[in-house]
Amino acid sequence: MVDWKNPPRLFIPGPVKVDEEVLQQLARPTLGHRGKEYAQLHGQTVDMLKKIFFTEQNIFLSTSSASGIWEAAIRNCVGLDETVLCTCCGAFSDKWADVAKSCGRNVEELKVDWGKPILPEMVDEKLAAGKYAAVTLVYNETSTGLTNPVYEISRMMKEKYPDVLVFVDAVSAMVGLPLHFDELAWDVTFASVQKAFAIPPGLAVAVVSNRALEKSRNVPNRGYYFDFQQFAKRAQQSQTPTTPNIPHIMALNYQCEKLLTEGMDNVWQRHKRMGDFVRAWAGEKFDLFCEQEYASNTLTTVKNTRGINVAETINAIQEKHNTIFGNGYGKLKEQTFRIAHMGDITLDDLKELLAWIDDEID
Ligand SMILES: Cc1ncc(COP(=O)(O)O)c(C=O)c1O
Fold first, then answer.
1. Please, what are the averages of pLDDT over each run of 10 residues along the chain (362 residues)?
2. Ligand 1 pocket: which of 167, 168, 172, 195 to mutate (most atoms within 8 A of CB)
3. Shared domain check, 131 and 253
4. Which atom of ligand 1 is least distant from the CA of 194?
5. Do 278 and 197 share a structural domain?
6. CATH code for the domain in which residue 239 is found
7. Atom of ligand 1 nearest to the CA of 173
8. Total domains present in the chain
9. What pTM was computed for the model?
10. Which end of the chain, N or C, is less packed with Cβ atoms under 10 Å?
């Protein structure tokens, strides 16, 4: 049984550690979702999110995990007879391509080996050779610990392919890494809140461009739960189409206020400091799985160069210190392990964890 007074400390790449005062937001008295108090909470939260993502466009709060928005982007903005280019560089970007196929769309994949980035010239080459309605990018591949050069890709696309929609999965990037939505001319980006927002799972935040919304108007069979048109209609009254996860929105409101008080530049710098620290340790004791230049500031995927038994090490640290970090994802299990450094995790937390791993392996 879980000891609720002493729950495990989480360093897995989501859900991540949640501070006590954030948990308290989830326990506030509930509101009616069509009442003025909720509209105030919703409106205020959306206004703060617009500042956080540097956008004047649409913010939708979805009571789902991020996978729902994978599907929403495709079903709302890619016609049944259109083709989407899915860039694949790890488990999550691969999965998004599968989701697009499961929505019955034509999918073309641009694949690189896991641990390698998607580069602007690769996307350019594909877009020059075919006709695509949209491109999917994963900002931060949570399986390989890699940050794709999405700014460079977006700038190239803005200049050379302005009519192709840009969908960006920012699940393990959002708020930990820079995100200037309007400047990059993105069309859909999203994350679930259990990553760098440091809130328990149960809500996703999506940013949707006006042109994506316009496009969706004429795409048939968008489905019901994730219909952007319904989200946009209700957003005018600071509401959601269906009953939202109000406790999570209270926690999101609280976290947004904290982020804006700290300042986004400072938030990104804080994540970089944590990334540098874990990378330095990983470089000394093991190696990084991905190319150093693209290593993420929100999590590190460590290559198990010493052949340690990862599962046993994780179990030992859980036994002794009630703390968990991540084994490798999918086919990278045991070949790698993953340490999250995002949200409300601190450098001191990381120093403690790495010292405990050292005790096990040295
Ligand atoms: C990059 C990325 N995309 C999508 C997902 C799926 O998110 P969710 O589990 O919130 O649906 C994850 C989950 O870890 C992820 O890391």
1. 89 97 97 98 98 98 98 98 98 98 98 98 97 98 98 98 98 98 98 98 98 97 97 98 98 98 98 98 98 97 98 98 97 98 98 98 90
2. 172
3. yes
4. 10
5. no
6. 3.40.640.10
7. 1
8. 2
9. 0.98
10. N
